[in-house]
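Before going further, learn to read the protein records used in this course. A complete example follows; check for yourself that the lines match position by position.
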Amino acid sequence: MNSSILGNKKLEGKVVIITGGASGIGEATARHFADHGAQAVVIADLQEEKGLEVAFSIGYCCTFIKCDVTDEQQVTSLVDSTVKAHGKLDIMFSNAGVLSMSSSEQSILEFDLEASDKLFAVNVRGMIACVKHAARAMVECGVKGSIVCTSSAVANTDAARPIDYVLSKQAVVGLVRCASRGLGEHGIRVNCVSPGPIGTPLMCNWMHTNAEGIEKAFESMNFLKGGVLKLRNVADAVLFLACEDSQFVTGHNLVVDAGFRP
């Protein structure tokens, strides 16, 4: 545990679900939330072995549930089991996502809809399911909760490739804006975080390199100099949106990208 934050536990007593929590941004955020005193951190992911390892390493407050967000029934069960075990749900970090799964980068003239079905199922349909069922649980429990979704810095650009990924992440921003309007009357805040390119295992596998390779590949595209974007920087942004520091922030897309311009 980071001793520097022991006296500043911003999530004390909070019950949290993090999808895609077994690695990358999700894992970093799970550890950060635990450090900030969360009562319960539920990691949801398809990576069962990795998820169990992360939950065990975090400690008693953290558990793992295998969940495929493309299956709405599994999302329902994830939320229901969390509420049954802990009595409520305060924070949903809907972070599960995939990169372009096409064998080659999609272009608008040759767009293969079937090749992008899986990507949209995870990045859009899965995101909607997580927001929907988290919000229902919060309303039923009378919790003025916080829902945070993961979009991407490319959602704010006119990047042409990979177009299917860009479209899916722009949909997340649209979802956040619509959901925040609809859930405001219940005191539920909905926001998203949009990271720039970062060395997650998913990104490294997609680009066939390591975290340092990702940093070198994109450093020249960031106009903010003096360092490189790390997982902890994104976790800090998610923490801000999840906790009471952002009490009156909703419908917002918090971009954490060092000025990334592709």
Remarks:
- The CA atoms of residues 17 and 183 lie 18 Å apart.
